[in-house]
Amino acid sequence: MGILSFKNMQKIYEGNVQAVTDFNLEVQDKEFIVLVGPSGCGKSTTLRMVAGLEDITEGDLVIDGRRVNNVPPKDRNIAMVFQSYALYPHMSVFDNMAFGLKLRKRPKDEIKRRVDEAAQILGLQDLLNRKPKALSGGQRQRVALGRAIVRDAEVFLMDEPLSNLDAKLRVQMRAEIIKLHEKIKTTTIYVTHDQIEAMTMADRIVIMNDGYIQQVGSPSEVYDFPNNLFVGGFIGTPAMNFINGHLDDEGHFVTGKTKIKIPKAKWDNLKEQGYENKEIIFGIRPEDIHDENLVKETYPDAVTNFKVDVAELLGSETNITAQFEGQTVIARVDARTDIAINDTIELVFDMNKSHFFDTETTQRIREKDEDKKKLQRKNA
Amino acid sequence: MDHNIILIRSESSIRPFKEIFEGFFPEGRVDFPGPRTTFIVQPVSESPPNPEDLYHLLLSDIEENLTFLSLPGVAQTLFGDDFLINGLAQIKHGHYEYEAFLLALIKAGKSYQDTLRRSIGSALESTHIHNALALAHHNMNISLAAKALYVHRNTLNYRIESIREKTGINIRQFDGLMIFHLLFS
Ligand SMILES: Nc1ncnc2c1ncn2[C@@H]1O[C@H](COP(=O)(O)OP(=O)(O)OP(=O)(O)O)[C@@H](O)[C@H]1O
Ligand SMILES: [Mg+2]
């Protein structure tokens, strides 16, 4: 089993550096959790507290029912994979994987069995006698994973294990790690600052900023229901557009000279929560801004003019960067080649996909049926 | 010959790992000045093994905190082995490059600061120290610092290199310059 429970965990480094604040999280057995956030937000610190390499300043860490705050790393039954996928250059693949077990004085036949099993899982059977320098980058990375697998730990901890790889290998290893997790289902906490890695790998994502958890949820949940401006802007590329403006008292979002009609259910909710005639931030993802006539006809009150700065054709899509009421907006539309710089084009916001954020708290204004929607999705 | 040194401190005896160290640094010389301390002299080569890799390997295999220092050989001449070995025991576990190690020692207390100031100071002319401080004062902007010092950019660049040769400290980087700022201003 690998169940972890973080309770009000804090880390304050020497010199009063508050690296992690009030970290609460329940990790289920077999879960693949990804900690993601910008540099310095406290991801590695959190992971190192789980590993026991860093003291926990305050709060509790419970692994499989046992409080481990004061348990030394080697008695926590965890295995770590670090950024560098280094191997012992003078040892064979077999010995690289076996070394940790030898240190723990496991019997020879058990060591052999475990290494063979791991080699089987990773497709390394034929390479066991090779030295690391006779392996490809991907094979080396797999051996590094093998070194963790043989330990038969309850929890894997990985700190940016792919960050030193070139882009192609990174994508390949991402898939490899997911496949591995599907096979052996060891509870994993994986740290990355790459939100695409987080979105593709995680069962649940923990988004951190400045030592605080911003949101915990499945990839689709944090994408569709971001808690706040930070999460909305951090998850998704290109990032969500944020447009400053205010609401009137007739169901419109107003920015500059533009008035956009808000769908009734959304408007009723905003009104009920007291945002009528108030300043507000309107959030819309690039893919929810359209140029198709059909959408324009459906939402005639949300069609507006944009002045094009850049149109980037990316295979099947075009990213249009444009000016809208003095604010820069990015729209992602189907591939088109008929747009030039400084053109004025008509685009339409899919207002059913609009998000609204409180200007002061930066929190997203929640909708009433939201929890129901999330639940439906979970059950689907 | 030019060399680097790697110092390692562990929580329990590290002697059983002699073979590992020798395997990882095949050209190095491995000594154990104490039961928990390893001292490796590694000649400078084209693609040297990366001590940080060994740090991570051992960390995941031994699973106890380790302190790793990767230092330029000049640190030995400048400060002496005993000072480095003592310093190793003063700082928090982790992997340190040279400048980060010196900064950690500066934080470790006045007696370390005094020794560092003395050793670095005696390896350099006062002009060098003065120039380093000017560079710090001008936010690492070499042109501005050179102007304020009434010297040519190239002269300042040359002195920066000379500081690096004599002390191993790279003041083109923030940590390196910070050392001069903390010790001499
Ligand atoms: N040993 C330490 N002593 C003091 N402060 C530290 C120490 N280690 C980390 N910090 C600080 O704690 C904060 C969190 O650091 P941490 O390494 O956990 O960030 P991270 O999210 O892993 O960032 P990155 O993506 O850059 O790896 C940072 O402000 C960092 O400077
Ligand atoms: Mg980190």
Can I get a quick summary?
Chain A is built from eleven helices and 20 strands.
Give a written overview of the molecule.
The complex is a heterodimer of chains A (380) and B (185). Chain A is an alpha+beta fold and 380 residues long. Chain A has eleven helices and 20 strands. The two termini of chain A are 27 Å apart. The model of chain A has no long low-confidence stretch (mean pLDDT 93). In chain B, 37% of the residues are buried. Chain B has a five-stranded mixed beta sheet with strand order 2-3-1-4-5, sandwiched between helices. Chain B folds into two domains: 3-117, Alpha-Beta Plaits, CATH 3.30.70; 124-184. By secondary structure, chain B is α+β, with helices and mostly antiparallel strands. Helices cover 57% and strands 17% of the residues of chain B. Classes of the chains: A alpha+beta (380), B alpha+beta (185). Chain A binds chain B through residues 14-15, 52-53, 72-74, 79-84, 86-91, 99-100, 103, 147-148, and chain B through 20, 23-24, 26, 49-50, 52-54, 56-57, 59-65, 92-93, 107. The structure holds adenosine-5'-triphosphate and magnesium ion (MG).
Question: In the CATH scheme, what's the topology name of the largest domain in chain B?
Answer: Alpha-Beta Plaits
Percent range of helical residues of chain A: 25-40%
CATH architectural name of the largest domain in chain B: 2-Layer Sandwich
Strand adjacency order, main sheet of chain A: 6-7-8-3-9-10
Number of helices of chain A: 11
Order of helices and strands of chain B: EHEEHEHHEHHHHHH
Largest sheet of chain A: 6 strands, mixed
Question: How confident overall, as mean pLDDT of chain B?
Answer: 94
Rg value of chain B: 18 Å
Number of strands of chain A: 20
The overall pLDDT of chain A, averaged over residues, is 93
Strand content of chain B: 15-25%
Helices and strands of chain B: which structural class? alpha+beta
Spatial separation of the terminal alpha carbons of chain A? 27 Å
